[in-house]
Structure formats: C-alpha cells, structure tokens
Amino acid sequence: MKKRRVHNTNLILPIILALLIVVTFFIFKSSNFNQQIPDVVEIPKEVQESIKNVKPQKYLRVPILLYHYVEYVKDQGDTIRKSLNITPYTFDAEIKTLKDAGYEFITTKDLADALDDKITLPPKSVILTFDDGYRDFYTDVFPILKKYNVKAVVFVVPNFLGLPNNLDTWMLAEIAKSGLVEIGAHTMNHAYLSGLPLARVKFEVEESKKTLEKILGVKVVSFAYPYGAFDNKTIDVVKKAGFRSAVTEISGTFTLDVNRFFLYRIRPGGRVETALLDLLERQNLAQH
Questions:
Q1: Is the pLDDT of residue 184 over 50?
Q2: What residues make up the domain containing 11?
Q3: What is 77-108 written as a DSSP string?
Q4: How many domains does the structure of the chain reveal?
Q5: Which of 126, 209, 214, 230 is the most buried (most CB within 10 A)?
Q6: Who contacts 234 (Cβ-Cβ below 8 Å, separation ≥6)?
C-alpha cells in the first residue's frame, strides 16, 4: 500500500505542475502584455452612436499626459521599450516646464470630483498618468515627483506586481502612502477588453479593483483601458464596478461629463519647454 501511495504522489505532482504551466501560458497569451498591438485611438462607432444625442452638461479642459517607461534603456534591441520611453532627465525637464508655465498637478480622482461639482479645479490643471506599473516608476519617476512636490497617477496590473520589470508590492504601498500618487487599476492581466466575453471583462475589471484595494487599504476609483481598447459593454462594467472615471489613448485635452469613462490623453514624448506647451495648445485648438 505504501509503495502505491508514493507512486500516485509522483504522478500527481507532475500533473499539477503541467496544469500550472498551461494556465500561466494562457493568461499571458490572452493578456497580450507588452506585445505590439495597435492602440485604439478613436472612439468606437458603437460608443459614438450611444452618445450622439446626449448633451454635455459639464466641460473642462485638462491635459492628461500619458507615460509608460521613464528610464535609461540598457537593451538597445528592446524596440518596444525604447518607443515608449523617455529619459529621467527629459521627464524632469517636462515637469519644470509645466510648473514654470503655471500648471498645477492634479489626479484623475480630482478630475472626477470636479465633474461631480465637489471641487473647483485650478485654471491650469494637468494630470500625469503612467500605465502598467513598471519598476522605474519607483526608481526614476517617484524621486522627481518628490523633488517638485507634484501629483501623478499610476495604473497598475495586479498580476504583474513583483515581476522583474514591475513594481513590488512594498514599492506600491510606499508610493500610495506618499500622498502624491493615486493608484488606479489597469485590469488583472493587461487584457485587451474590447470584444471579450462579458464574464472575462468583469473579472479583469472588478478583480483588479478589489485586489489593489486589499493590498493598499484605499479606494481605487480610476481605471485605464489596456491599449485604449473599450466598447459599450466595457464602459458599463467599469461604471458598475465602482470606478469614477476611465482613461483611453485617444488624443485630446477636453473633458466632458459625457466622456468621463473614455477620457482623452496626450503623449508628450520628449517635448520640453515651448514644444511641450505648444503641444497642449494645439490640442486645445484642434478640439475647439
């Protein structure tokens, strides 16, 4: 009997290991994380159709800047990272440019409060947002935020916390306690939400909120769509999950109550001084 039990145990362990490998593979495959997938840069037609007769009641102009990596890229063959990166030196110069121009730094939570008439925003407000929760947010971005005492928002993928390229949980906790950084959700697995089955969308959206709230002990009210991919179903799930706003990768600076769940953002790239300020102004004129 003892030999048979040992034999059965030896069979079970490889099976469990194989199942874990398969599950992990499909999670990463379905998440499309860090792959070159085209970003959604226009409002989907079904969303346009659903709001075409809705008259906006609230109108604000708040540039929301979109960042990914802020570091000195070591692997010059990593073309994806290089295309999404600016150096810490450039980021520092961008913050100085905005501060010198009179901009005040707010969060997406602040923007939602303004849309709900809970607060009045400064005349020149700007929001810094960082997608994915990369480790360089702690090592390179966070020190610059503290240097200038400015706010920012980082949208985190909970299932990637602790990976070599991403924030550790203790880093995220320290950042959240600083009072400078709002933590937002970015799905559990960086999933391309548009077109997914409803059950999967609910899991990715709802669990990302619950997981981050459990880790941090704070309410998570802001959401970012991976790849900017969303549709009416996704918007409905985000609303019902308890988020108060959501950001896309559609270019623009205007915020309406109508589009609080598909807010526009701008990629500043490496622009500083006049080039950066002109970019914000051109966005204003283009949308007016």
A1: yes
A2: 1-31
A3: T-HHHHHTEE-HHHHHHHHHHHHHTT-EEE-H
A4: 2
A5: 230
A6: 193, 194, 201, 205, 225
Q: What is the pLDDT of residues 112-122, one digit of tens each?
A: 999 999 999 99
Whether 16 and 110 map to the same domain: the answer is: no
CA distance 153 to 183: 6
Backbone CA torsion sign across 194, 200, 206, 210: negative
Q: Return the pLDDT at 26.
A: 42
Both tokens of 253, joined, read: 């600076």
For β-strands 254-256 and 59-61, DSSP reports them as antiparallel
Cα-only R_g, the chain: 21
Question: Rounded CA gap, 133 and 186, in Å?
Answer: 9
Spatial distance between the Cα atoms of 55 and 37, rounded to a whole number of angstroms? 34
Place of tokens 């295309």: 83
Q: What is the pLDDT of residues 27-57, one digit of tens each?
A: 444 444 445 688 898 999 999 999 999 988 8
pLDDT attached to residue 255: 86
The total number of residues written for the chain in this structure: 288
For residue 63, pLDDT beyond 80? yes
**39 within a domain of the structure (yes/no):** no
pLDDT digits (tens, 9 = 90+) for 79-88: 677 576 789 9
Contact 103, 276 (CB under 8 A): no
What whole-number distance in Å separates Cα of residue 143 and Cα of residue 136?
A: 10
**What torsion, rounded to 10 degrees, do the Cα atoms 93, 76, 134, 126 define?**
30
Q: How large is the average pLDDT for residues 280-284?
A: 71
What type of residue is 260?
R
In a domain, 37, yes or no: no
Q: For residue 197, which amino acid is it?
A: P
